[in-house]
Amino acid sequence: MDKDLLKKWSAFNPVIINFGRGVRVDLKRELIGRQGIVVTSPRGKKQLKNDPVLGKIFVNNKQWLWIDDIQSNPEIVTLEKSILKFNNFTPEVVLAFGGGSVIDSAKVIAISMASKIYDIKKLLLDPDATNKRTIPLYAIPTTSGTGSETTPFATVWDHKDHRKYSLAGPAVYPYSAFVDSELTDGLPDLITVSTGLDAINQAAESIWNKNMTTLTEATAGRALKLGLTALHSLIKDPKDNNSRDDMAEASLLAGMAISQTRTSLCHSISYPLTTHFGIPHGLACAFTMPAVLRLNLSADDGRFIRLACLLNDNPKSTQYDLIKKFDALNKELCVSSHIKNFVGNIDQLLDLSIEMQTPGRSDNNLVSVDDSDIRNILKSSWG
């Protein structure tokens, strides 16, 4: 074990985690007789109402109000309108049923309603609102990707100004997470891939991260081993429920890892790709993964060799084996080609290089970077 990893570290994650296929039956017992707000998307509303386990709780139940118009990459203005509809109502609980955008939206809604601050940009600047929880949030993910059910972060967007904002603090953690992989069965292929890439990237970024600890290395390593294998299997057979289970666990563990380390350079670069070009988040994050890995190998303190050995089940694996693993992933999923479907030419990306240095994200990268590094990463990733 490297001496650097024996330095003092601490960890905090208060989320009560319930994991496993069919585990949502335990949630049913907690919700019966309570009142609150359900936050979901149009697709999620249909799925929830038709769910054989949870559906009967919410159908024709006046104790539950609905915010059911959440879209990918939630817009601040839209969220504020939804919150103002219920500003005279204080829910007993908030229930998030959906992917990362839904769970992030529910986090903002719960904190806004608890603090009575309905201007989200003001909410982002109020430390009191994000430091104490007053309305419990139950998070039920229906995708395997963001791990938002176990993180103290919520991402919201101002698409008019092409800006991403992050709400962060102890109160942003959900009260409880129910990760039931059965809810991801039948996900469309594109969502499976994009969200799966997000989980894989988050795990990777927890490892090439200045804030890595022995705990997060172990958690992220397990997430990567599960996620890389499961996503490869799901590409071949979307009905492989065992791989759905593994992908759900990978997403959960990756979320737990970044709850301690935060994400890093790939995420920082990804935000302008999403705000300017509408590139799905997981795809945007995966775009630069191999290039960022290569950059960070120069600072290897043993972590990359350990990861290579873990992922390849071979104690003699090298950095080169690790590079091959990530190159193969992006090649198999045609990541660069997909990016080029959204972006006309490399110059459009290079023009955004300054925007891609996000404080609190890019500076977590194991190797410090400047604008020239980011431009080189973009060129290498473009191919």
For this entry, give a set of tags.
383 residues; alpha/beta; Rossmann fold; Dehydroquinate synthase-like, alpha domain; 2 domains; 6-stranded parallel sheet; two-stranded antiparallel sheet; 8 strands; 51% helix
In brief, what are we looking at here?
This protein has helices at 24-31, 42-49, 55-58, 76-85, 100-115, 120-123, 127-131, 189-207, 214-236, 241-261, 265-277, 281-286, 289-296, 303-312, 319-332, 335-342, 346-350, 371-382, and strands spanning 16-19, 36-40, 64-67, 93-98, 137-141, 153-158, 163-168, 176-179. With 383 residues, the chain is an alpha/beta fold.
Write up what this structure looks like.
- 51% of the residues lie in helices and 10% in strands.
- It has 18 helices and eight strands.
- Helix 9 (214-236) runs antiparallel to helix 10.
- The model has no long low-confidence stretch (mean pLDDT 94).
Please trace the helix and strand order, writing H or E for each element. Answer: EHEHHEHEHHHEEEEHHHHHHHHHHH
What portion of the residues fall into strands of 2 or more residues?
A: 5-15%
Broad shape: globular
Distance between the termini: 37 Å
Which stretches are poorly predicted, pLDDT < 50 over at least 5 residues? none
Quote the CATH topology of the largest domain: Dehydroquinate synthase-like, alpha domain
- Secondary structure tally, helices: 18
- Tell me the number of structural domains: 2
**How many E strands?**
8
**Major pleated sheet:** 6 strands, parallel
